[in-house]
């Protein structure tokens, strides 16, 4: 009988061990994973501020205004050249093609007039675009992989 009781206790003990759950504690070193790239800014309804025309960085001289472009969903384009406001229409497939009709502009003089003229010439010559992150680049039709005509940056108003 004693042998039976010992077998029963051993069996019960093994049964209890089989039912036991363990809380495994694992420690790991946090891995530094690269964040996925930020989604590109929207082409439409974004204020695109001119940062570069051709190879020239854009600085706003005293008395000038920050040049920008705003494309509306209805095809209207408007902006500031630095001295003058302008309007146009833009045809796009929203993927890579972008063409502007001739710009209508006011005719005021200011110290930033050369920058404005380069900007409006870049818009007139634009045929395609690329957005990466918060950067919009405009390209000529014959040079889609060359230096962009203009580089603009999305600026979000809060």
TrEMBL record:
Q: Which UniProt keywords apply?
A: Signal
Name all DUF306 domain ranges. 41-139
Q: What is the residue range of the signal peptide feature? A: 1-21
Tell whether Repressor is among the UniProt keywords.
no
Entry keyword annotation includes Signal:
yes
**Mind telling me which InterPro entries this protein's record contains?**
DUF306_Meta_HslJ, HslJ-like_sf, Hsp_HslJ-like
PANTHER family from the UniProt entry: HEAT SHOCK PROTEIN HSLJ
Q: What is this protein called?
A: META domain-containing protein
Q: What is the lineage of its organism?
A: Bacteria, Pseudomonadati, Bacteroidota, Cytophagia, Cytophagales
